[in-house]
Amino acid sequence: MSKLKTVREKLNLTQEELADRSGVSVRTIQRIEAGTDPKGYTLKVLAKTLGVEQDELVKTSEKQAPIPLTFLKLINLSSLPVAFLPPLNIVLPLIIMFLKKEFGTMAKQLISVQILWTVGAFVLFMISAFIKNWFLLSGKFTLMVMVLLALSNIALILWNAISLDKNKTPAIRLKFSLI
After folding, report:
1. Closest to 161 in 3D by CA, of 67, 66, 76
2. Are 86 and 118 a contacting pair, CB within 8 Å?
3. 136: confidence class by pLDDT, cuts 50, 70, 90
4. 101 phi and psi, to 5 degrees?
5. Mean of pLDDT values over 119-123
6. Which of 16, 75, 85, 103, CA to CA, is 20 to 30 A from 28?
7. Counting beta carbons within 10 angstroms of the beta carbon of residue 114, is it exposed (0 to 12), middle (13 to 18) or buried (19 or more)?
8. How far apart are CA 175 and CA 55, in angstroms?
9. What is the pTM of this model?
């Protein structure tokens, strides 16, 4: 029995009711229940409609094996030596992920957090440059902002590392992936 059918029946929904709620055609639902894995938009919509994670609708045989915790720690901590060099805090974990060929959702989320931090740090740095000029602050202001941003990245990396040790999941879990 397909995972979609199992979840649908657990919620006492017919194929037609699921089609109406999700906007996915009945024929597509029938194909998925016959053995085709949902992908892309269809997978997202069905998971959201049924209130389950997308992984729960994919066949077990085609699911990725869970990524070892030590690998997740490596991905996370590989950003630490280059925390002061924002583009490298993304590139180094990506290189490791591609070399090891481990593309699990948690690894992608850890890197996505670094991408979000880098974009946010860039925006804050640019704002601080304008503030410095507007308020005629000293040249040390820019340096202080750079140091504070780098320290915040180090804190973020260490917070995720501690959470990986204690809870086996990162402290910051995104509901999306940027890679």
Report:
1. 76
2. yes
3. low
4. 55, 45
5. 93
6. 103
7. buried
8. 13
9. 0.60
CA–CA dist 168, 161 (Å, integer): 9
User: Can you tell me the distance from the alpha carbon of 171 to that of 89, in angstroms, rounded to the nearest whole number?
Assistant: 18
Non-local (6+) Cβ contacts of 16 within 8 A are 26
CB 51 within 8 A of CB 2: no
* Per-residue confidence (pLDDT) for residue 63, from 0 to 100: 42
DSSP letter string over 68-134?
Answer: PHHHHHHHHHTTSTTTTSTTHHHHHHHHHHHHHT---HHHHHHHHHHHHHHHHHHHHHHHHHHHHHH
**Cβ contact 113:174 at 8 Å:** yes
Residues 39 and 133: beta-carbon distance below 8 Å: no
Could you tell me which of 51, 64, 44 has the C-alpha nearest to residue 7? 51
Lowest-pLDDT range, 48-62, 79-93, 150-164? 48-62
**159 by DSSP, 3-state: which?**
helix
Confidence check: pLDDT of 148 > 80 = yes
